[in-house]
Design a protein that fits this description.
By secondary structure, the chain is α/β, with parallel strands linked by helices. It is built from 14 helices and 20 strands. It has an eight-stranded mixed β-sheet, sandwiched between helices. A four-stranded antiparallel β-sheet has the order 13-18-20-19, with helices on both faces. Strands 15-16-14-17 form a four-stranded antiparallel β-sheet, with helices on one face. Helix 1 (16-31) packs across helix 4, helix 7 packs antiparallel against helix 8 (213-221) and helix 11 (285-295) packs antiparallel against helix 12. The longest helix is centred in the first third of the chain and has 16 residues, at 16-31. It binds aspartic acid and magnesium ion (MG). Residues 10, 41-42, 47, 73, 135-136, 150-154 line the site of aspartic acid (ASP).
Length: 435
């Protein structure tokens, strides 16, 4: 018997029929003797609908009220799941964040969890009940309802698993795991059985949308064994098979995991590039450009400064696309004249493509292979950044898919290796196509 947290995403909770399927799956785990806490998302599309209602009244609704509204989506799906479980004869109770309570700071729409009081939940579990806790929401010290940012129920689930000391946190979603890349772009993409925590952290921050970044950070901080798996499989499938399906995020890296040099290709179109042209090349210039940008609370990702010619140089960096206009404004008003730059130039038609893998630590020549592959496709690299386990490039966004396909092939991810393809212990669950 173990305490296990299940999280179900919006698609998994998307209709009465799907909620009944979730209930059947949860009942199966419960009847096998496990203590189960379930964290559901709002039904698919519901959070957008709720936010849309508020925006139809005014463009920038008060954020306290917006959170109070957005949080109701999870309350509805939690209550519906409790009803479905009770209908199957399983004792189940739903709790909103404030009833647990899950306390957060007061940063509406992007609050951070500060504490989870497990007493009430553990009591209920001790009585033999299934406990359902709303994802995505909490309560601040003053009793206001807060939400954790879009996709935040992943974080709720992992944080609850950490607070309760759960044996595993199972994230049930509409794909059956973490893939070597998006199968919609590369049909040969393969599901990974295991991914190291560090790789998952890179993939989440580089634009893989499987898990909210903060949930991965939580999993790492509290070492919560977390598994991503499909909710759209047969809910009655045998438990021992289900337990090994999907992708496990692990904290133990073995040699086999390093055999594949690269474990995944991530990509996104979330960034925009800004270039400050004709900057005098002298000490302090990077600070004079990026200081005001940081002062405006804008995150900078990649940075590059060219070789200077006749004492001037060009300085480029990327920011999130949502902050592109704001960044240009800061540069035009606070920076351009002061440093004597010739021109500020922006480009939103860029994409970031990254290769990620812990095998990079023990292999050389990875960057060279990546650059050669892009060169052979005639794709120009505009910016490069690296860490110990990833290489990212900024390219023209019209070549993004081509780059992803070429790199997937070049790093042999189309082929089966120890971490993808049929599961060594469990061939029956291999290669379920992503939904
Ligand atoms: N319902 C929230 C959203 O759509 C939270 C979540 O689904 O994780 O962002
Ligand atoms: Mg999600």
């Amino acid at each position: 018997m173990a305490l296990i947290v299940h999280k179900y995403g919006g698609t998994s909770m998307g209709s009465a029929e799907r909620i009944k399927n979730v209930a059947a799956r949860v009942a199966k785990w419960h009847r096998a003797g496990h203590q189960i806490v379930v964290v559901p998302s709002a039904m698919a599309g519901e959070t957008n609908r709720l936010i849309g209602l508020a925006r139809a009244i005014c463009e920038r609704p008060d954020e306290r009220e917006l959170d109070a509204i957005a949080a109701t989506g999870e309350q509805v799906s939690s209550g519906l799941l409790a009803i479905a479980l009770r209908h199957l004869g399983v004792d189940a109770r739903s709790y909103a964040g404030w009833q647990v309570p899950i306390t957060t700071d007061s940063a509406y729409t992007k609050a951070r969890i500060q504490n989870i009081d497990g007493k009430r939940v553990l009591n209920e579990l001790g009585r033999g009940a299934v406990v359902i806790i709303t994802g995505f929401q909490g309560v601040d010290d003053a009793g206001n309802i807060t939400t954790l940012g879009r996709g935040g129920s992943d974080t709720s689930a992992v944080a609850i698993a950490a607070a309760l000391g759960a044996k595993e946190c199972l994230i049930y979603t509409d794909v059956d795991g973490v893939y070597t890349t998006d199968p919609r772009i590369v049909p040969e993409a393969k599901r990974l059985h295991v991914v190291s925590f560090e790789e998952m952290l890179e993939m989440a921050s580089l634009g893989s949308k499987v898990l909210q970044l903060r949930s991965v950070e939580f999993a790492g901080k509290y070492r919560v064994p977390t598994r991503v798996l499909s909710s759209l499989t047969d809910p009655f499938m045998p438990l021992d098979i289900e337990m090994k399906s999907g992708t496990l995020i692990t904290f133990e890296e073995d040699e086999k995991m390093e055999q594949a040099v690269v474990s995944g290709i991530a990509f996104n179109r979330d960034e925009a590039k800004i270039t400050v042209l004709g900057v005098p090349d002298k000490p302090g210039i990077a600070f004079q450009i990026l200081g005001p940008v940081a002062g405006a609370n804008i995150d900078v990702d990649m940075i590059i400064q060219n070789q200077s010619v006749n004492g001037t140089t060009d300085f480029s960096f990327t920011v999130h696309r949502n902050e592109f206009a704001k960044t240009i404004e800061v540069l035009e008003h606070e920076v351009k004249k002061r440093i004597g730059a010739r021109e500020i130039f922006g480009d939103t038609k860029v994409a970031k493509v990254s290769a990620v893998g812990i095998g990079m630590r023990s292999h050389v020549g990875i960057a060279a292979l990546m650059f050669r592959t892009l060169a052979e496709e005639g794709i120009n690299i505009q910016m490069i950044s690296t860490s110990e386990i990833k290489i990212s490039v900024i390219i023209d966004d019209k070549y993004m898919e081509l780059a992803v396909r070429a790199l997937h092939r070049a790093f042999d991810l189309d082929a089966t290796n120890g971490r993808n393809g049929p599961h060594p212990e469990n061939p029956a669950v291999a290669h379920a196509p992503p939904n």
